[in-house]
Amino acid sequence: MQNHLDNHSQAKITYFPDQLVKDIALPERFTFPFYYEPHPLTRIAAAQLQQYLEEQASLDHNFGLDSDQEGMAIGKMFGVLVVQDTEGKVGYLSAFSGKLAGSNDHPNFVPPVFDMLVENSFFLKEQENINTLNAQVKEIWADTTYTHLRQQLDQFSTQSSQEIAALKKQLKVNKQNRKKLREEQQNKLNLYDYGLFEAYLVKHSLHDKHQLKVLTDQWEQLLDKTRESMAQFESRIEALKNERKERSADLQRQLFEQYAFLNRDGKSKSLQDIFSVTAFGKPPAGAGECATPKLLQFAFANGYKPLAMAEFWWGASPKSEIRKHKQFYPACTGKCKPILGHMLEGMPVDDNPLLLNPGENTKLEIIYEDACFVIVNKPAGLRSVRGVDIHDSVYTRLKQVLVNTEPLIVHRLDMGTSGLLVVAKTPEAHKHIQKQFLNRTLSKRYVALLSKVIDKPEGEISLPLTGDPYNRPRQLVCFETGKKSITRWQVVYTTETTTKIHFWPLTGRTHQLRMHSAHELGLNAPIVGDDLYGTPAERLYLHAAYLEFVHPETKERISFEVTEDF
Known about the structure:
It is a single chain. The protein has helices at residues 18-23, 40-55, 122-142, 144-186, 191-258, 271-275, 291-301, 333-343, 394-401, 427-439, 512-518; strands at 2-3, 14-15, 76-84, 90-96, 260-262, 268-270, 305-314, 328-329, 365-369, 373-378, 408-409, 418-424, 443-450, 458-462, 465-467, 475-477, 486-494, 499-505, 542-550, 557-561. It is of the alpha+beta class. It has 3 domains: 2-114 and 260-354, no CATH class; 139-255; 356-561, Pseudouridine synthase. The strands form 4 sheets. Strands 9, 10, 11, 12, 13, 14, 17, 18, 19 and 20 form a 10-stranded mixed β-sheet that branches. Strands 1-2-4-3-7-8 form a 6-stranded antiparallel β-sheet, sandwiched between helices. A two-stranded antiparallel ribbon has the order 5-6. A hairpin with a 5-residue loop joins β3 (76-84) and β4 (90-96). It is flat.
């Protein structure tokens, strides 16, 4: 391959040899960015880019591939865009998401849509002002007088609480003693003497209350005085924080307006305008910094025709999401989908495979039915419940079969997962069986085919999961906000390249088995055919094989089993 360096824009293109382009048909429509099989030309381009990354030591970025390299390991998404220039020649552009080695300026990659890091930019100047405010806040916090007052307030708060609590405890004992004295003297004293005695006890009661008020007031005065001394420091901190907040918001708005994206017709739209009509209302952090928007922006700005795109991960796997070195991934939905919706407007794009129904010609087998519920063997590709665009599902099919009965879905299986699914026929049965799912008193076993050989015979995985807000329905591993997720597993057998395995999910989180299989802290072996966390195949090789629970009427423990077809 050869680089043309006639001008700045051509310097970013790596042209394919003419013979290669003749041998490989150009795509008729542009790639659907959110679910695709890379075009042969994008695979060739990606391979060339990956070779460049392996050989380029001057990038000075730690991707986590070399254990001896210093600095924090940060993997990156890279993208390639196959384009046709104004003379009809075909080549590709390269880009990375975010920044690389702390910079946006790299000769072999297209520039960002807006470079906030250029010298003397408004961003850097305002960032310097914000940093000055941060330094002033830190300086006040470090002031010895303020530090002493904070410590004093903590000490007084603790001491006052302890003393007041101790007095209240003693007053409670006094009250119990007075009650006991009343009971003892009530039958011993005549009415007149008992009245005098009661007045004596009331006097002591009032004295106790006065003691508590005096102590409380003393401490409150001391605490107020300390807080008053601190107020001048805290009002200054609050003013600095408010100024910082306003400056940051203004800076963000300026940035959103600077990020203006082109489409094929030359129409420009800012980030703010693009995201104002979305559920977010405003752009999320990092929007516009992904590889594909950068690539399309450069292509449109220079008159190139985009033909196909692909993105791949380069570097060590992150701890939160599933990203494997050199593996292709779709563009993210939360940050990129609104932007690409504008940028690809008017362009012929591949059909969205997510609107197709892979379960259309499959058979839904009812393996058990009584007055309470139905057990079905859900085929791979069929939804459990109807979706926005695809209505065909276990629910809609049973709706047609069960005369005068509303199917009540107790639990769900992913569209790609086959196997046992329980559907209640009465509200009472639904509540009873669902409670067993929630309380984890039923037993269920899955079978999966993993894409790697697992050395250990069995084990348990505990990785907390949470939804990825910017890339639904993908999940993340998060040890701070994630929900407890536990899976027990046992190897059935291994081949040279795969492992058949049994899973017992002890919790029921979204994509739990798929995440626990694919994540490097789990089995580090995606399920074969997992198009979210691994590599697509003709199906997802995951099957709900066994289910055991208590019958809602007979109260007997019943079980069902369906053998996988892989």
